[in-house]
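I had to read the description of the data format several times before I understood it. The format is easy to grasp once an entry is in front of the reader. For illustration, here is how one protein appears when written out as sequence plus structure tokens:
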Amino acid sequence: MRPTITIRNVEKFYAGGESLAVRSVNLAILPGELTILMGPSGSGKTTLLSMIGGVLSPTRGEISVCGTALKSGSRPEEKDRTRAMLASAESEVARRKATHSFQVKSAEAQVEQARAQVELASAELDKTRMLAQVNGTVVRKYMYPGEVIDVLHPQPVVTLADLTQLRLAADVDESDYAQLHPGQRVTIAIESASDAKSYTGTVDTISPITGQKRFSTGEAKERQDVKIIEAIIKFDTPPPAR
């Protein structure tokens, strides 16, 4: 297949031969082939295209279009056709630049959308987490997977215990709740078959909700239908292990 445009050893000088704009270019462009000239500003792209279009003549070398050598100012029809080809090539370059810019912006928008979705998923996940105000070990579960809880009706989910220090869980009658407060000094009496000892301590925490009574003194006048409040007592000096 014969090339549509053939460039052989083309060079172009300006300013009386002192400024070299194009050096030793050899190129053959086949029919239907798209060729794009790329390079920094001042590398000679426009000069070469102007010589192909017949606007300028090369200082050295030869340019042929469809087998016919071009000369500056000759063959107006070839010059017009080449200018049209040049305009088409420039339009294609501009189109590809615009397409690339759009693709980059589209990709950036997709990245931002993905980040927003990750933040939304993280926020939704945070809604499923329950954070305790203290560190400890779960020693009792009140609710299990699948059960429903809400903020309007508070209810215990688990009991946490600090196993690094001995504490006492005391059930306090609801009628005595008003007299109880964190930091209150208390005395703990521990009785056994052989002796009785007393220990001092401090009210550490108080449950925010009431519960059913879980113990009995065995006295006949004792009521079983009362509510109790759970208070956690911290020993000043814990009793020895038995």
